[in-house]
Amino acid sequence: MASRYEDLCAQLRREFPRFRVIAKRDSRLQRAIHRALVILTFGGMRGYLDDFVTTIGSTIYVCSDWNDRSDGDRWATMRHEAVHLRQFRRWTLPGMALLYLLVPLPIGLAYFRMRFERAAYEETIRVNFDLYGMGYVKGELREHVIAQFTGPNYGWMWPFRRSLERWYDAQVQVLE
Length: 176
Prior knowledge:
The chain has helices at residues 2-15, 28-40, 48-51, 71-91, 93-102, 111-132, 134-138, 140-150, 161-175; strands at 20-23, 54-56, 59-62. It is mainly alpha-helical. The protein folds into 2 domains: 1-91, no CATH class; 106-176, no CATH class. Strands 1-3-2 form a 3-stranded mixed β-sheet, with helices on one face. A hairpin with a 2-residue loop joins strand 2 (54-56) and strand 3 (59-62). Helix 4 (71-91) packs antiparallel against helix 6 (111-132) and helix 8 (140-150) runs antiparallel to helix 9. It is globular.
C-alpha cells in the first residue's frame, strides 16, 4: 500500500508541476478558513483543521495526523483530492472559488460545490470498494458520504437527501 500512495504522489507531481502537500496548521490561510467556517456554520464545522484534507489550486492541505494515517487511508484520500486538482486545472482558481463557494448560495444550496464534491466522492466510493469491499461501501461509508452533503461540514451544501441516496446507490450499482 505504501508504494501505491508514493506512486500516486509521483504521478501527481508529474501531472501538476506545482503540486505540493502542506500541513493545514502551518498555513495562515487554512487557519483563517477554519475560523470562518466555525462562524458560518454556527459551530457545526469545528473539525476543518484536524479532520479534513483540502485542495486549493495545486496544493493539498493535510491534517496534522497525516503522516500517522495508514497508507491505505492516505492513498484513498489523495485519490479523492486528485479529482479536485483536475477540477482546479479545468475551472481555474478564480472559477472554482466563485462556483464552489457562492453559486447559487454559499450555504444550504450550493449546487456547484455539490457537483464538485460528488465527482470526488465517486472516486472515494471506488477506492473504498477496492480497499474494504462492498459491505463497507453499502454500509458505513454510505451514511458518512451522504452526511457530508447534508450536514454542516460542507455548509449543508445539498439538502435533498433522496437525490443523494439515488446518486450514491447508482455509483454502488456500477461496482456490482
